[in-house]
Amino acid sequence: MLVLLLLLSGYRLAAQSGTIRINHEQRSLVDVLEIIARQSRYHVVYSNDVVTDSMAVSVAAGEYAIDELLQNVLPGHDLFYRELSDKTLVVSSLKLHGIQQPAEAKGIRIRGHVRDSADHPLAFASVGLYAADRFLTGSTTDRQGHFSLRHAFDAGQSYTVKVTSIGFQSVAFAFVYPDTAQLAAITLKRDNRLLAEVQVQAKRPPIERRADRFIVNVEGSVLEIGSNGLEILQKSPGLWVDPNGNISLRGQSVMVMINDVVQRMSSADLAEYLRTLRSEDIAKIEILPNPPAEFEAEGSGGIVHIVLKRGRDEGFTSTLNTQYRQQVDRPAYNMGATFNYKIRSLYVFGTGGYGKDRSSYIATNDIRYPDQHAYNSFTNRENNNTQAMLRLGAIYEFRANQSIGLQTNLNRGKLLQQFDTDIALIDPQRVTEGSATSDWTRTPGLNSATLNYSWKIDSLGSGLKVLADYLDSENPNTNEFHSRYTYPERDAVFRNATPSTTRLYSVQTDYNQWLDAIQLKAGLKFTNTDRDNEVIHEQFESGQWLLDPGRSNRFRYQEQLLMGYASLERQFKRFSAQVGLRAEQTIMDGNSVSADIRFRRSYVNLFPSVFLLHRLDSAGKKSLVLNYTRRLSRPSFATLNPYRLQFYDFLAQIGNPDLLPEYTDRVEAGITLAGGLSWDVYYATTSNTMAQYAETVDKMIEYQIRNFGSSHRIGTSVYLPVNVRPWWSTTNNLNLYYLRYQIAEADYRNTSFNISTYQVFTIKNIGDADVFAFYRSPYLTANSDMADYCSVDIGFSKRLWNNQARLRLNVTDVFNTAREREVTQDPGATVYFYQKRPTRTVGLSFSYTFTSGKTFSNRKIEQSAEEEQKRIGN
């Protein structure tokens, strides 16, 4: 197959000088500008705040002159372009330059030159032409200070030219055409008072909706400072982040990617990592409920893709940030720095961070048995966690169309939890009181390296990428437990050590080819995982620790994944269609050395996908969508281990080597209307549904993840952005679904919804205030009923020092309403659980950016070892 892909690279379409060829209808302005850059000699320069991902255009397939194409797509978004040199085009906003939309260019062209009082050319000055205070046309100066204005001038008619530039005094003067001598040398004087007061603020909407995804704009919005990655996800439409950090979309698990790299770690480890990821490092978050074939099939609920910021300065750019948060009477703080440096064909980048978090939880557990026995406990949990991370990388472009990159990631943590519990054991004859302590220590570490080769085959975007990854993860883990009762025969002292090591390597190749109006994508990938996991259970007897072989276990696991995909996309005027097919083979070999249990499995699955889109208007702002996808969720490596791990006197976790992946088929239809209103309806059916089930065995509550036949889900979602006033904007989201499934011949049905609103208020000359409110109704998971959950957050941010610094104050869970309640029912017992975390916090954040260099576009290294990192657990 790889040979076939390389042969296809011989099919080339060379771009003609001065003309641009569009192979299929385009509906994204960003895509059009990228095509111009690929097929011409020009570097197209623009700010992400001026040209956004949500700007839609309609360009039919064909050949266009560059100026003709730009005149077609820019004016509709109040944009214009200037040719600064024979190699550079700059796209800018008429609104930011303070001029209105010019009339269609025609008539006579006049020229002029603008300079400062030191006789230096003044670039990017705004020039407007007026007649009797009526705006006629406008322009901006190039890098040498030159400008031109085109208009149907009338001889003898009076006109006025106004020239403005930030930090300079504006000038306006009249002339009678054709006497334009005054334009030859226009001088602007500096306005020191104005320069000290002017502050340019380009804001982006916090949330945008596109045809196939939601985009949460962190960079350039009020979300940019003062939060961690998990908190940003909590504010993202459609996502539910439970108090333990588990992430779901429409009630199903998701695959989390960061810069195209799937995070292959357990949900608990992923949550800890996302808490250390600073919002200052995040550019945007993409939420894809129905990903296409080029994405791995893992994640029944879809994909959450976190895109980190890219440096834009040639030379050196760096950002420093710090945050302090008070959590009731416990502090938390973090600090970090990022840098980007480019010299000629070499680009070097890096980011590092350190954080420390102390907090205190309280929890109660009430277990009631049918024979009138009961277990009551009250626990105080102290957390003292430290996390550090470092990411370094470099890219070298050894040819104009070829580059090679290397990226390394290092993560270290020290997580300390202490549990102090008061216990009451109740039976009809007596009450036994006791206390227990548990010290849980984890020191996880993860190292990874990625080698990336990229070859751009032609100017139309065809190319080949080859990626090789290596990952090494170690997770030492010890939990020591002591319990003491009024009746000493119940006393217990034991400890569990659960160290694990995981080594993973993968090789991936992706090919993309344009064939006239058709885009072909195909790729191959191989991943190998080796995991060694132990459970070492020891009892403290006669003053020493003694190994308990019956409760200890060593589990060796090896897995290979062989994957391939192909997809085809074509557009027909306002209608587009994409079909894809992905194949994944899984080969498993698990060996419980201690229990002498071994299993081997091999299975192949196909994952088809179909995406249909019909645009209802030429701008693409109104559309109908219909799609179908098939996805799966594999069990994590740790859950396949046939171990039994006792946490307390009455609680234990059991592995399940018989677990099978769950498969989800989803059909979804939706409509997007003017103003951004969108409405989706979907139906999903899941086979081999995985869920954690609680069962009572000899008064011990045992938790185990099991397969439970099929589940059916019908749902709808509504997204509504509203600009209430020029200074007040809001985004609102509603998700509602009905779920039905069976467990142990019991039929479970539940209707659940969550609703959120995000309000942003711009206070002129002061700053930005924001309010986020969220409510989730009660819902079911396996045989547990989860209570409703709600919270309200408020924040205020202020830009300082010419936008180089930002200060933010935020308060989470203002009314202290967020708490966890659940009821688990089993024929042998009913468990009532309650937990309160320090959700009401006050935080202060500060970030500062300094830059030295020229504008350029950063690049990022893609990684191939994706899905397995998510499954690395204890």
Automatic annotation (TrEMBL):
The keyword Flavoprotein does not apply. Pfam families: CarboxypepD_reg (PF13620), OMP_b-brl_3 (PF14905). Signal peptide: none annotated. Gene3D superfamilies: 3.55.50.30, Carboxypeptidase-like, regulatory domain (2.60.40.1120), TonB-dependent receptor, plug domain (2.170.130.10). Keywords: Receptor. Residues 455-848 form the Outer membrane protein beta-barrel domain. InterPro entries: CarboxyPept-like_regulatory, OMP_b-brl_3, Plug_dom_sf. The keyword Amino-acid biosynthesis does not apply. This is Outer membrane receptor proteins, mostly Fe transport. It comes from Parapedobacter indicus. The lineage of its organism: Bacteria, Pseudomonadati, Bacteroidota, Sphingobacteriia, Sphingobacteriales.
